[in-house]
Each structure stands twice: as structure tokens, then as C-alpha cells.
């Protein structure tokens, strides 16, 4: 319980920051690529997305450390702030300036692949949605491109994104084994790897149980989000 109390909030911070970065980059990139279909913008976005998915964290993390921590000396290479054990309210890690300097590299490393996945899904589903009859009807009524895309097409296009978002969110907030190991972050992923090496079965069972419970709740949240995104699902 003590290990979970200290490790889970740190993994939660890293996971939320990574997912927010992925959404902020991936969804707008997918929208722009779909609206500029078969243009240089679309090809460039698709190339960057494939590149982001293809480069694993175990490669991207050390490269970022070498460039920004070793060569340039701009950012620290490891850890999660100097006072990560001084929690607010007993469980919230402090988010000081020192925290943000430590969080930049692992957040980029973990969020890059997710942003590429979101971009590809958003592009593919939005391309299919904007060809539907109700989108042509909305345009024939004289609605602007912004209202057609943001008010009608995008909401229905986000269903595949939400499908992968739930399990992906739980996977990162319960600890990213590779990223936490590379950057020396004392999260649940780090403790899980150490417990496997030491054959510490209570820690292995505890982290697995937390992940399983979170995955069930995430899938339930995804089902609820379906009904909000597409009202037709409510009547099925």
C-alpha cells in the first residue's frame, strides 16, 4: 500500500500529461490532413504519423536524453523532480518549475506515439464521415466549413479515437514500464520491473490488479462516451 501510494500519483501525472499532449497534437493534425486530402499537408502529416508510430520509446527516449540533456544541457536526464515525495494532501506530487523541467522529455517520449495513433485514426474516420449524406445536407444549407466539421462531422469521427483512448489512458496512468525505466521515474512501471526482477509477487499482483480494475472502468467509460458522441447508439 505504501508503494502504491507513492508510485501511482507519479505514473498518473506522467500518463495524463502524455495523453493531453497526444490529443493536442494528434486530433488537430488528423483534422487538417483529412480536410487537405491528397495535398502535401496530408502526405506530410501521414509521414510524420507513421514515423511516430514506428519509432519505439526505447529508441526515442535515449535519443532525446542525448540531445537535450547531454549535448545541449537544457533539461535533466532523469528523475521526476527533486521533491516528488513531498506530496500535497498526501497524494498529489508538487508541480513546480523543477517538476516541469523533469517532465518534458518523458512526456514527449510517451506522448509522441499516441499522438501519431490519434492523428491516423482521426484522419481516416473524418475522411469517411465528410462524405456522408448529412454532411452534404449541412453544406447545402450554407453552414460554414468550421460548423460542418466541428459541429457535425468531428463528433461522429471520434468514436474510434475514444475506443483506443480508454485502454490507452489506463495503460499509461498505471505506469509505462519502458519510459519510467529509461528516465528513472519512481512510478508504478519502475516498481513493476523491479518486482519482476526480484520475484516480488505481491507487487506484481497488486499492480496487475490495479491495471485490471482500471481497464474495466475505462471500457465502461468508453461505452458511455459512445452514447454521447452518437445519439443513435442510445436507441440500440
Report on the architecture of this protein:
The chain is mostly helical and 236 residues long. The chain is 76% helix and 0% strand. It has 10 helices and no strands. The protein is globular. 34% of the residues are buried. The mean pLDDT is 79.
What labels describe this entry?
mainly alpha, 236 residues, globular, 76% helix, single chain
Work out the number of β strands.
Answer: 0
**Rg calc:** 20 Å
Helical residue percent band: over 70%
Mean pLDDT equals 79
Layout: helices, strands, pairs:
Layout (H helix, E strand, L loop, with lengths): L1 H34 L4 H15 L2 H15 L25 H33 L3 H8 L4 H13 L1 H15 L3 H6 L5 H11 L2 H29 L7
Helix pairs in contact: 1-2, 1-4, 1-7, 2-4, 3-4, 4-6, 4-7, 7-10, 9-10
Write a brief structural summary.
This protein is mostly helical and 236 residues long.
